[in-house]
From TrEMBL:
InterPro entries from the UniProt entry: Kinesin_light (IPR002151), TPR-like_helical_dom_sf (IPR011990), TPR_rpt (IPR019734)
GO BP terms in the entry: microtubule-based movement
Recorded GO CC terms: cytoplasm; kinesin complex; microtubule
Name the record gives this protein: Kinesin light chain
Organism of provenance: Aureoumbra lagunensis
SMART domains: TPR (SM00028)
Residue ranges crossing the lipid bilayer per the database entry: none
Annotated localization: Cytoplasm, Cytoskeleton
Single Gene Ontology MF annotation: kinesin binding
Length: 137
């Protein structure tokens, strides 16, 4: 049931906040597998779950494990919402942050610029998310 998957995601967030990263990862893995195999993998929650798991892995320093989750979330958002949607900007921003941590500064800058453009077009120049994108550059 979709609510069980959502419950696992919220449990994972709680566990992460408590510093129980391994348990949080397990809950994210289950939530994502449920989305992929039982529920609708086209649900907007799918990309959010992937980004949350990738963020956890990034925080743990597992950059190589995080990368495919960020890339999958970005691809999903582009296909489901179009290339100029705010969910795409979020995925771009998160992937760019990982690339920056890995020392891939040119790639990170390119993705941050694209996220900035999307946010400016959708939110206007004075929105906090636009400020975040400017700060990331």
């Amino acid at each position: 049931h979709p609510k069980v998957s959502t419950g696992r995601k919220y449990l994972a967030k709680l566990l992460k906040a408590e510093g129980k990263d391994d348990e949080a990862k397990r809950q994210y893995d289950i939530a994502i597998a449920t989305q992929e195999n039982i529920l609708d993998p086209n649900s907007p929650n799918y990309a959010s779950d992937l980004l949350d798991l990738a963020g956890l892995l990034t925080d743990q320093g597992y950059y190589d494990k995080a990368t495919p989750h960020y890339e999958c979330a970005l691809k999903f958002c582009e296909e489901q919402f179009g290339p100029d949607h705010l969910k795409v900007a979020k995925a771009l921003n998160d992937l760019a942050e990982l690339l920056f941590l890995q020392g891939n500064y040119d790639q990170a800058k390119s993705l941050h610029k694209r996220a900035l453009r999307i946010r400016q077009e959708n939110l206007g120049p004075d929105h906090p998310e636009v400020a975040q994108s400017l700060n990331n550059l």
